[in-house]
Amino acid sequence: MTALGRAAAGITALEEYALKDAPLNKIHPGAKILSAAVYIVCVVSFPATDLSGLVPYIIYPAVLLSLSDIPLCALAKRLLPVLPFVLMGGIGNIIVMKEPVLIIGGLTVSAGFISFIVIMLKAIFCAAAAFILIGSTPFHVLCGELRRLRVPALFCVQLVLLYRYIAVLLEEASAMYTAYRLRSPGGQKGVNIKDAGSFLGLLLLRSMDKAGRVYNAMKCRGWTGTFYSGQKNKIKAVDCLYGILVCGLCIFFRFFNLPRFFGILIQGGFFHASLG
User: Fold this and answer.
1) pLDDT tops 60 at residue 7
2) Is the distance from CB of 135 to CB of 20 less than 8 angstroms?
3) How far is CA 165 from CA 36, 155, 160, 168, 169, in A?
4) Which of 33, 37, 148, 217 is deepest in the core (most CB within 10 A)?
5) pTM here?
């Protein structure tokens, strides 16, 4: 299977995770959307050099992965494409921010290196939160809940269509790539630079043809452009408890640096012990 085919299969696997009978999958989608949004906002709002304050936010993906029955390896595979872009953005801070911040065992740690780690953690935490949200709730249910939260219907329709048919596009590209390799001399890997323009142009034409056929099929089935959010899920006490607990902890960790507090307590204990 090609990389494009594996990507299409990965999108299908997300739907399978969302249909499991896991504890997190039973939580109301509105509570999960709100808690994920608060979590991402709190993570992003941290200063570039506040590493200790960001550490407690690892609890969110660690706990919810087990509650959603999503394998850790599946999350790692989705994070790999994000890391190169984060690396390119964070390496510049190591070069520019050379002010010493810590000295560990004679090794000086610069502010740029701390900032680099913070950027990496922010990207990993935010991507993990989005993946867990989609992997624990069917995507059309999430979009339906967004519509109830007064998100414009056009945006919800575009979001559903993009998510639903991106796998179809990847399968189309995978079939073209397989045909290209079979017809190329020696079964070469990758698309030749001189053929890349023709390959992408043909993919565009086939995508437009596929989009036209999908649109005609939807019109034949009575689609008028209106987004139907489906049956409304009732909010239960456990949903409210989940939202209050997650949002409350995220806000608490944002304004109270728990690792620094424990560090001060430990330092104080050692200081009193040495005096005694």
Assistant:
1) no
2) no
3) 25, 15, 8, 5, 6
4) 33
5) 0.80
Per-residue CA distances from 105 to 102, 112, 149, 166, 270 (Å): 10, 19, 52, 50, 19
Per-residue pLDDT tens over the stretch 89-123: 778 777 777 777 777 666 777 778 888 888 889 99
**How many angstroms separate the CA atoms of 100 and 106, rounded?**
12
Task: Give which of 7, 145, 144, 129 is closest to 70, Cα–Cα.
Answer: 129
- How does DSSP assign 68-119, residue by residue? HT--HHHHHHHHTTTHHHHHHHHHHHHHH---EEEEETTEEEEHHHHHHHHH
Question: Are 80 and 98 spatial neighbours (Cβ–Cβ below 8 Å)?
Answer: no
- Cβ neighbors of 202 (< 8 A, separation 6 or more) are 176
DSSP calls for 158-199: HHHHHHHHHHHHHHHHHHHHHHHHHHSGGG-SS--HHHHHHH
Instruction: Name the token pair of 16.
Output: 């399978």
The Cα-based distances of 113 to 95, 127, 150, 201 in angstroms read 9, 21, 42, 43
Provide the token pair at 211: 């989009």
How far the first Cα of the chain sits from its last, in Å, is 68
Helix %, strand %, coil % for the chain, to 5? 75, 5, 20
